[in-house]
Amino acid sequence: MAENSKIEWTTHTFNPWIGCQKVSPGCDHCYAETLAKRYGWVEWGPHGERKRTSNANWRKPRQWAKAARTTGERQRVFCSSLADVFDNRVPTEWRRDLFDLIAATPELDWLLLTKRPENAARMFPSGNWPNIWLGTTCEDQERYDHRWPILGSIPASIHFISYEPAIGPLRLHNGPDQPDWLICGGESGPSARYMPPAWAEDIKADCERAGVTFFMKQMTKKAPIPAGLLVRQFPSPTTKDER
Q1: If 41 and its partner were Cys, which of 36, 69, 84, 89 is the partner (CB 3.0–4.6 Å)?
Q2: Is 2-242 assigned to CATH 1.20.1740?
């Protein structure tokens, strides 16, 4: 449940626990649910369990942090691909243990991606967290209009949007309150809903205009990315301050 990741925008994935439930249309074809059913990890859904991963798994980030101290290169950790850090069915002590781990590994940048920013607003611990990048999934305009204002009000080093799976058009609003980073991706899998390239082109143009760092992850069903969209940028607190 912790590994060198195949996800293009992170170095590692780390899952402190497994289990979640669907909360919006972007969850309809959830790959984590598919994997959980295939391997019998947990029952998915509101009445399913949340299963904490092994102690050996929890030691992995400390190993990555040690390696980062040796090389001097920061590594990004996506947490969690098989759960949601701010799921209200997760025991409070598990989340406390996770933030203790984040505090103990300042060499790593922790990417916490949630579909529950309203929970994050009350569960996120107070204090200074320079190694947390806080993000929310916004699969269409409705979800962006609801989730981004909540997430953007929570202090974090970097705020980001995962526009994946893109199942409806999304445009940034004018004004100073913008995310630092936006990841765009079409849905994959046999039942993937189609993302017209124009949606990606429009949001890329919005990001360029607003000074938002842009990362094009994939087209629908991982079709080739058009040359004009193949932009893969990463944010930093420095670029954030320059906006």
Answers
A1: 36
A2: no
